[in-house]
Q: What sequence folds into this?
């Protein structure tokens, strides 16, 4: 070959090789990006922002059911762990949506976590998100189910409790009519009728009070409350009942103890504890009310020298209509709602109430509330 052609031929060959090599690199890069997209899929634009803005739990899954994005609510409810769905029920719903290609809804009751027996009630909706992803939204309805259970039990209990005084009033009215010509019998039946009417009045009042305490705005008008004023008013309201049984009420309050809340509600709570102590104490004994400050909390303790509470029943004393001694409660007009009202008042104020008891030696109920000086705003507790 003529030497004059060698240089152009070499340049041409080099150009062909360079173009071919560049094309191969571009193709390889494109394939690598497609492979990376398959291995590490990205959520469509805007989806993560929407999930974060939702109050419900939101989860986005890829074609392999790997969690590529989720809200904090999904983690808090125990639905996601280690980039995967925790519950097989959710996986089955997602697989069905992916197979059918359409959205689906399902109500589920799932364990809240690996420990304990707590569960969550969820309304779960799953829907395709593009061609590769599935979006799962879970609305927590645990509180709604709990309130429905409480309402159902409450209605059943009220129906049972109201039957007794209403039935007694009906029978006594008939007895009065038949004994119209016997003054002594009329007086006796009239006295019984008054007692049953008072029991019915107390029951109705406490049912209304308990309903009010369960309202969302129970502490709408909270203010600073002097605890010694609460104790004094509650003790004074019980002195007549105490004196009729020769029971002494000894109250020692701390004038510097201040909490944030509703004074009338707190007076009701302490009043109920003192009344309960008087009801279950023998004549001639003493009921003590003390106030202490401890670690940013105010403690109000009501102690009696009564019959005490069996250990097997201490966890139930705050239940609606529960009575340790049903016969004694009915004789004294007890409704079984007093301690339940105490619990709700205290929880509405961000505190708790505890009981210590020993049969034959008495009981101590202690209310713990956040001290007002350590709280900038009213504290709202959980509601039942």
A:
């Amino acid at each position: 070959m003529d030497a004059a052609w060698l240089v152009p031929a070499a340049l041409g060959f080099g150009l062909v090789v360079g173009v071919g090599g560049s094309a191969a690199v571009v193709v390889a890069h494109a394939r690598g990006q497609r492979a990376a997209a398959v291995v590490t899929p990205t959520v469509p634009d805007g989806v993560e922002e929407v999930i974060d803005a939702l109050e419900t739990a939101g989860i986005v899954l890829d074609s392999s059911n790997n969690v590529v994005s989720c809200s904090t609510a999904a983690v808090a409810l125990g639905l996601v762990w280690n980039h995967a769905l925790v519950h097989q029920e959710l996986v089955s719903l997602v697989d069905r949506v992916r197979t059918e290609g359409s959205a689906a809804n399902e109500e589920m009751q799932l364990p809240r976590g690996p420990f304990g027996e707590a569960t969550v009630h969820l309304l779960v909706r799953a829907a395709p998100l593009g061609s590769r992803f599935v979006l799962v939204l879970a609305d927590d309805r645990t509180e709604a189910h709990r309130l429905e259970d409480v309402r159902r039990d409450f209605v059943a209990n009220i129906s049972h409790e109201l039957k007794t005084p209403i039935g007694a009033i009906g029978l006594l009215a008939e007895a009065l009519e038949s004994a119209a010509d016997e003054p002594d019998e009329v007086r006796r039946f009239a006295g019984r009728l008054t007692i049953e009417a008072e029991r019915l009045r107390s029951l109705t009042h406490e049912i209304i009070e308990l309903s009010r305490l369960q309202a969302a705005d129970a502490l709408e008008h909270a203010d600073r409350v002097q605890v010694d004023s609460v104790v004094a008013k509650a003790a004074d309201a019980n002195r007549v009942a105490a004196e009729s049984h020769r029971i002494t009420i000894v109250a020692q309050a701390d004038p510097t103890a201040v909490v944030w809340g509703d004074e009338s509600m707190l007076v009701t709570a302490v009043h109920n504890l003192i009344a309960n102590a008087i009801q279950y104490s023998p004549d001639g004994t003493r009921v003590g009310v003390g106030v202490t400050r401890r670690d940013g909390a105010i403690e109000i303790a009501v102690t009696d020298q009564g019959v005490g509470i069996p250990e097997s029943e201490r966890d139930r004393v705050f239940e609606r209509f529960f009575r340790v001694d049903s016969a004694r409660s009915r004789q004294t007009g007890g409704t079984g709602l007093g301690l339940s009202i105490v619990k709700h008042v205290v929880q509405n104020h961000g505190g708790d109430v505890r009981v210590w008891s020993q049969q034959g030696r008495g009981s101590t109920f202690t209310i713990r509330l956040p001290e007002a000086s350590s709280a900038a705003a009213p504290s709202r507790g959980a509601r039942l």
Residues 142-213 form a domain with the Helix Hairpins fold (CATH 1.10.287.130). The CA atoms of residues 25 and 211 lie 74 Å apart. The chain is about 45% helix and 20% strand. Residues 3-39 form the longest helix (37 residues).
